[in-house]
């Protein structure tokens, strides 16, 4: 059992900067949880407190049911992979991967088996005889990742480990980490600012902002049912469209939120809600689809549609949406709300 429990965890740095603000979270044994949020939101600080590299100002950390406050990092049975890697420059890749196993007196046959298994999975098996000076940045990052994975731990903590890789290799590595998680059955906690990594890798996503947890749910629920405007605006590319609206009959101000793929051009159906008309400002062709930026006067919106040569800069379109595709947020609290009737303004 190696689940993680955070209870009222807070981190305040000298000078009063509150990096993590009273968060509580339970991560199940074997779960893959991804922390995502903007720079400075507290996600990496939370990870470092779990690892024992940062002391918490208050609150409690439990790993596998054991209270970890004050326990040294080496005694927590966790492996940590950083964004920045530090390899032993005088050792080959093989020796870098084998180093921690040798320190633990693992027999040579098992060391060789585990090193070669991890190297093959990370596609660095052809680099085993090289030294770090002969590696690219992406190769060095994968060696650092392998060095953490080669020793079996109950908990693996990842702090943006794929940030130095190119887009194609990041995609490949995401798939490999998911498969590795399934094979190990260990608890994975992964920190990233990349929405694609968060949406494709995690069993659950923890969205953070200003040291607080904004929402913690499976990826599809985070995307389809955000609990607040921050989560709705942070998750999704292109970003969700926010449009000023009101709730009759008292004209209470609200924010209407619509995903780009849900906006419609020149909809003639009676159930469509008319949002406004405007000129196309920009068209971004993305192969089979295109992002279309339209100026509605009071606001601009972005929609995703199939590639169409008839949609060009300067053309005018009516923009609408179906009622079931609209999220309504309280303008003051930023929280999602139920609204049976509303209108764009």
What does this structure look like?
The chain is an alpha+beta fold. It has two domains: 4-233, Rossmann fold; 238-344, Beta Barrel (OB fold (Dihydrolipoamide Acetyltransferase, E2P)). The protein is built from eight helices and 20 strands. The chain has a six-stranded mixed sheet with strand order 6-7-8-3-9-10, sandwiched between helices. The longest helix is centred in the middle third of the chain and has 18 residues, at 167-184.
- Which residues sit in consecutive blocks of at least 5 with pLDDT less than 50? none
CATH secondary-structure class of the largest domain: Alpha Beta
Biggest sheet: strand arrangement = 6-7-8-3-9-10
Distance between the termini: 54 Å
**Structural class given helices, strands, pairing?**
alpha+beta
Q: Write down how many β-strands occur, each being a DSSP E stretch of 2 or more residues.
A: 20
Question: Which descriptors apply to this entry?
Answer:
single chain; 345 residues; alpha+beta; Rossmann fold; OB fold (Dihydrolipoamide Acetyltransferase, E2P); 2 domains; 6-stranded mixed beta sheet; 5-stranded antiparallel beta sheet; 8 helices; 20 strands; 34% strand
Summarize the structure.
With 345 residues, the chain is an alpha+beta fold. Helix content is 24%, strand content 34%. The chain has helices at 43-51, 93-103, 108-121, 137-149, 167-184, 195-201, 219-224, 229-234, and strands at residues 4-12, 18-27, 32-36, 58-63, 66-67, 78-81, 155-159, 187-192, 204-209, 212-217, 241-247, 252-258, 264-265, 273-286, 289-295, 300-306, 316-321, 327-330, 336-337, 343-344.
